[in-house]
Design a protein that fits this description.
It is a single chain. This protein is an alpha/beta fold. The protein is built from 13 helices and 18 strands. Strands 1, 11, 12, 13, 14, 15, 16, 17 and 18 form a 9-stranded mixed sheet that branches. The protein has an 8-stranded parallel beta barrel with strand order 2-3-4-5-6-8-9-10, surrounded by 6 helices. α9 links the parallel β9 and β10. It is globular and about 65 Å long. The structure holds pyridoxal-5'-phosphate. The site of pyridoxal-5'-phosphate (PLP) has 18 residues, from α10. This is Diaminopimelate decarboxylase.
Length: 410
């Protein structure tokens, strides 16, 4: 999308606004697919939590993607988008047995990540095939806030508990049809990913009826120019060979599953905000925008870097700014950032705003959540309207608790 396209979107739909480039999503999807083209049965399950707009789900499904879900609500969204139950996997953490049973009734593959629920579920429903999430205790991600595979992580069943796991499976007579791992976000080092995969293969040998191996996700995407990213093509080459060998040993062709969120949608998204005020202090120049961590929380929550471009004045002289939000809280998007000269009213574009951006937005400060636009074939299509005052009031009950006596004396 060009600067002109972005300005046109801001003009047509107002600011702030999220815009997603359909072409980029398709590009990433096909890139991953091509990297594993030698795998007979590859399934890519998009991680719905990254960006859960139903039109995005529909679009990804039309490209051939299944869905990876973490709540029964996400399962329902995927079904609503027209995704077949067999193309959905449910990978929750710490949910109730009741919710898991609800998902099973919807015809969706479940993934269990703790022994307590595994035992309860197996005892009650030994006939339902179950995937298990193991924790390989390998820290694939670079940032501990978004890594979920280390030893103290709450995610997955520790591989050290394999003997107990196997006893539960035997005692209940349940059917394990898949093994899953997800070591967290931001995999830089392919060798680390491959090491974790070895542990997955090792665990898989314990089960006779497997249909698929799910390697999760956590592929790193670039956040700045010349940033390192996961070398998907190299990973494709190495893991494909190893996977094929494993299938030979195992004696059956298995399905290889990935569940990328960020990789598919992060770079496709731009978040557009308008500069309300330029405020010079003794130490910096603030550019105050018409948004805050209510709409884009990643910089404050994870310390994530989002490139910021002044699309209204891209050729302007570069100056240093602190870009801050309008929330009554410290909400700094960027400190001391070089940006083309900003004038009040300019539109700034935040990069990497496709994943974990709108989906983590809130109504803090009673602001409306922004609209979402899908840029498809040279045109912006509104896929979510901006909220309105009615949305803020929805579900609230206006009740009068004024004491009767006080009323009487009025
Ligand atoms: C969040 C999540 C993903 C997606 O992770 P990304 O870093 O966005 O690719 C995949 N699988 C599971 C189980 C997840 O919780």
């Amino acid at each position: 999308m060009t600067n002109q396209d972005l300005l046109a979107v801001a003009k047509e739909f107002g600011s702030p606004v999220y815009v997603y480039d359909a072409e980029k999503i398709a590009f990433q999807f096909n890139r991953l697919k091509n990297a594993f083209s030698e795998i007979k049965d590859l399934r890519i399950h998009y991680a719905v939590k990254a960006l859960s707009n139903i039109s995005i789900l529909k679009y990804l499904n039309s490209l051939g993607s299944g869905m990876d879900t973490v709540s029964v609500q996400e399962v329902k969204l995927a079904l609503k988008a027209g995704v077949a139950p067999k193309d959905i996997i449910y990978t929750p953490n710490g949910v109730s047995l009741e919710e898991i049973e609800q998902v099973v009734r919807l015809g969706v593959q479940i993934n269990i990540d703790n022994l307590s629920i595994l035992e309860q579920f197996g005892a009650k429903h030994p006939e339902v095939p179950v995937c298990i999430r193991i924790n390989p205790h390998i820290l694939a991600g670079g940032n501990s806030k978004i890594s979920v595979g280390h030893v103290d992580s709450k995610f997955g069943i520790s591989i050290h508990q394999m003997p107990l796991l196997l006893r539960i499976v035997e005692n209940t007579g349940m059917n394990i049809n898949g093994i899953h791992m997800h070591t967290g976000s931001d995999i830089l080092d392919i060798e680390v990913f491959l090491r974790a995969s070895e542990i997955l293969f090792d665990s898989a040998k314990n089960f006779k009826n497997l249909e698929f191996l799910d390697f999760g996700s956590g592929f790193k995407v670039p956040y700045r120019e010349n940033d390192i990213e996961t070398d998907i093509e190299e990973l494709g080459e190495k893991l494909t060979e190893r996977f094929k060998n494993f299938c030979k040993e195992y004696g059956r062709e298995l399905t290889l599953v990935f569940e990328p969120g960020k990789f598919l949608v992060s770079e496709a998204g731009k978040f557009l905000a308008k500069v309300n005020v330029i405020k010079q202090t003794t130490s910096t120049v603030f550019a105050g925008v018409d948004t805050g961590f209510n709409h884009l929380i990643r910089p404050m929550f994870y310390g994530s870097h989002h490139d910021i471009k002044n699309v209204s004045n891209p050729e302007g002289k570069f100056r240093f700014y602190s870009v801050v939000g309008y929330i009554c809280e410290t909400d700094t998007f960027a400190n001391n950032r070089r940006i083309a000269e900003i004038t009040e009213g300019d539109i700034l574009a935040f990069s990497n705003a496709g994943a974990y951006s709108f989906s983590m937005a809130s109504n803090f400060n009673s602001r409306y959540r922004p609209p979402e636009v899908l840029w498809y074939k040279g045109k912006g299509h509104l896929i979510r309207e901006r909220e309105t005052f009615e949305d803020l009031l929805r579900h609230q009950k206006v009740m009068d608790f004024t004491p009767k006596t006080a009323k009487a004396s009025k």
